[in-house]
Amino acid sequence: MRTKVLFIALALAASCAAQPKAKDIKTVVLKTQPEMHCSGCEKKIKENIRFVKGVKTIKTDLTDKTVTIEYDAEKTTVKNIIQGFKKIKYEATEVKKADKQ
What we know:
Elements: H1 2-18, E1 25-33, H2 39-49, E2 55-61, E3 66-72, H3 78-87, E4 91-94
Antiparallel strand pairs: 1-3, 1-4, 2-3
């Protein structure tokens, strides 16, 4: 009986430890300089920024000229994402909530 209880307790502990922990997914909205103004700009940004470690999704909006990026905060930071933009000759700045209209 003791052996069964010990076995069940060990099995439970192992199954809890094997579950992946929740990721810290965050979102940042950026504006670029030069401004993103055409589908070529969108393509360049999407094809290059996707390689920044931790980036999950990239959404562009030509009307607002913004780039919305979801990223894993355990793997990257906004600063690293902005560095990724510099590699493709764009200056990216974070749009604060008060800046949005």
